[in-house]
Structures are given as structure tokens and as C-alpha cells.
């Protein structure tokens, strides 16, 4: 189920990007660069309505799949901070061990030759 929703989500992402790029805007849009004029395919105003509705539908699919993937991913898991907070705090009676003992440290005079 998770794989199916992921595939639909990726497809919706790519489709949403393409549909937004094809829509006509105030400046230079990709739809006129590719075909010369988008009005010949969808009529004089039919393209704007079609792309607006298609973008809304694709955005709705994108949002629904995002929420579903979030809910599916969070089932059975707790916060990352709940498990790590107790593991990283040392016990009150324990003293921290030094990382290197003084006898194993190299003295500056031993480095010079």
C-alpha cells in the first residue's frame, strides 16, 4: 500500500510541475514556446479553464497523498527525542570516563627531533 501511494504521489508531483509550466501567465510561458500558441489546441478561453481545473485536481491529489504518506509513516513510531533523551543522560552516581589517559598523550618535546 505504501508503494502504491508513493508512486501516485511522485506521479502527481511531476504532473503538477508540468501543468503549472504549461499554463499561460503574464510573461513568457512555456506553452507558447513549445507549440507557438496554446489557444489553437483548447480554443480561445477553453485552455485557461481546463488547466485551472486540472491544476486544482492535481494539487488536491498531491495534498491527499502527502497526508496519507505522513500518516502511514508515523504509525508505530514515537518521537526520535523520546528514545535518545534517556540514553544520552548518564546516571547520577557514575563519573564520566576520560577519553584519553594522561600517560598515553604525546608530549610536545617528544614530537621535536
Averaged pLDDT: 73
- Counted by DSSP, the helix tally is 6
Q: State the low-pLDDT regions, or none.
A: none
Please give the alpha-carbon distance between the first and last residues: 68 Å
Order of helices and strands: HHHHHH
Gyration radius, in Å: 30 Å
Give the helix/strand class.
mainly alpha
Question: So what's the overall shape?
Answer: elongated
Number of strands: 0
Helix proportion? 55-70%
Beta-strand fraction estimate: under 5%
Question: Main sheet?
Answer: none
Write the layout of secondary structure elements.
Elements: H1 2-22, H2 30-35, H3 39-42, H4 46-74, H5 80-88, H6 108-111
Structure description:
65% of the residues lie in helices and 0% in strands. With 113 residues, the protein is mainly α. The chain has a domain at 2-74. Helix 1 runs antiparallel to helix 4 (46-74). The longest helix is centred in the middle third of the chain and has 29 residues, at 46-74. It is elongated and about 75 Å long. The mean pLDDT is 73.
Amino acid at each position: 500500500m505504501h508503494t502504491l501511494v508513493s508512486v501516485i504521489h511522485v506521479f502527481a508531483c511531476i504532473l503538477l510541475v508540468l501543468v503549472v509550466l504549461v499554463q499561460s501567465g503574464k510573461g513568457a510561458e512555456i506553452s507558447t514556446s513549445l507549440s507557438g500558441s496554446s489557444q489553437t489546441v483548447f480554443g480561445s478561453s477553453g485552455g485557461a479553464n481546463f488547466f485551472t481545473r486540472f491544476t486544482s485536481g492535481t494539487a488536491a491529489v498531491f495534498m491527499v497523498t502527502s497526508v496519507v504518506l505522513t500518516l502511514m509513516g508515523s504509525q508505530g513510531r514515537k518521537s526520535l527525542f523520546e528514545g535518545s533523551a534517556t540514553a544520552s543522560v548518564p546516571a547520577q552516581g557514575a563519573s564520566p570516563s576520560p577519553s584519553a589517559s594522561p600517560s598515553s598523550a604525546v608530549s610536545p618535546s617528544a614530537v621535536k627531533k
